[in-house]
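Sequence in, structure out. Go.
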Amino acid sequence: MHQQAETSKQISISPKLVRDLRERVIEFLLLFAALSSVATTIAIIVLLVYESVEFFSKVSLQEFLTDTQWSPLFADAHYGILPLVSGTLVTTAIALLVAVPLGTITAIYLSEFAHDRLREVVKPFLELLAGIPTVVYGYFALLFVTPLLQIVLPNLPGFNMLSAGLVMGIMILPLVSSISEDAMRAVPVHLREGSYAMGATRLQTAWRVVYPSAISGIFAAYILGISRAVGETMIVAIAAGLQPNLTWNPMDQAATITAYIVQVSLGDLPHGSLEYQTIFAAGLTLVLMTLIFNIIGYFLSKRYREIY
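Output:
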């Protein structure tokens, strides 16, 4: 008996060792998750670059950037990316005209004016908009928003960039308002109290003290909204049409980069063909556009960042 007790005491594991082992396992899982994200990103970039190099070995970069027609699937093929870029930028600009002002006003109200109980009710409902499938937004734009706009604009065609951009703005509104509100609520209370002590009203404090103090976080929300709008697929594919058209008129139909990728990625194109490789050239263009927006957002956030 005495020998068995001694043996049991020798193989017992201390609680500290168990806690350390558990923390090591959790740390390893977190590191694995982080490295998986990095590896996935690198793999996507390598695939895009590899296929794009094959594409640009057959199509010159000058033709890709300057040709005003995009018709790679036709007999008279043209490979100018400008029609897809113009469609992407126009729909993104319309979406931002909706999401930025409405999102900022909503964030100011929720942060500075709404009672806590009202905020707890309104904010989850607002964030529900982000959970609606984008295909539903697309048909909402096509079947509801477009007929509504045609009452005011009788010449508006059934497929147009205006309705697609407006609904995209509604879609990214929760993203802009939620992140902007978090940034405003992170502003120290003593800045508000100082403003009130100077005789400022609540609106003056919100607009002239809280908003400038949270501008770096608000810029980050705007940039994320831009990236979300640039990469949106289903809304523009359903509501804006799939006709590559170099136009800056929001009432025209057009195709975006993502809509083109969806259009041709249906498995009918043989792998390795030039038409197949256009998918990756267009995708690489989209990645570079998003990267440029993110770099601009990074430098703006760094430039206007306030440390309290």
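Check: The mean pLDDT is 87. DSSP finds 13 helices and no strands in the chain.
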